[in-house]
Write a structure and sequence with these properties.
mainly alpha
């Protein structure tokens, strides 16, 4: 159980760092080059920073629970991890909705420009 907790905690910390690094340096095939995309990218970076921090906190709490062993700290840490993961899933759903809405608006603006020309 110790090895599993150690592996899971380190994996989540690494994953949070990798996600933040990739978000900061850009994802492959990201095509946000218009003026319409500036506000969307700013909001996306802010929300994804929050999610990545929460993932990192989950990794740190799992490591704390692993080293503390079974007891009050273990129970509290895993309870917080469970609730935090629920929040992460909700935030990811909101991010997907925001991205979908942004792409719909972008396509609508492109059609309007094409028809105006």
């Amino acid at each position: 159980m110790f090895a599993g907790g150690l592996l899971l905690g380190v994996t989540l910390l690494f994953f949070a760092i990798w996600l933040q690094w990739t978000e900061h340096h850009g994802w492959p095939h990201d095509t946000f080059d218009g003026d319409d995309d500036i506000e969307y990218r700013r909001r996306r970076k802010k929300s994804r920073l929050l999610v990545n921090v929460l993932i990192g906190i989950c990794g740190a709490l799992i490591l704390a629970a692993t080293f503390a062993g079974v007891g009050v700290v273990y129970l509290a840490a895993w309870s917080i991890v469970t609730l935090t993961l629920v929040v992460i899933v909700i935030l990811a759903g909101l991010d997907a909705f925001r991205t979908h809405r942004h792409h719909q608006d972008k396509i609508r603006r492109m059609r309007k420009r094409a028809l105006d020309d």
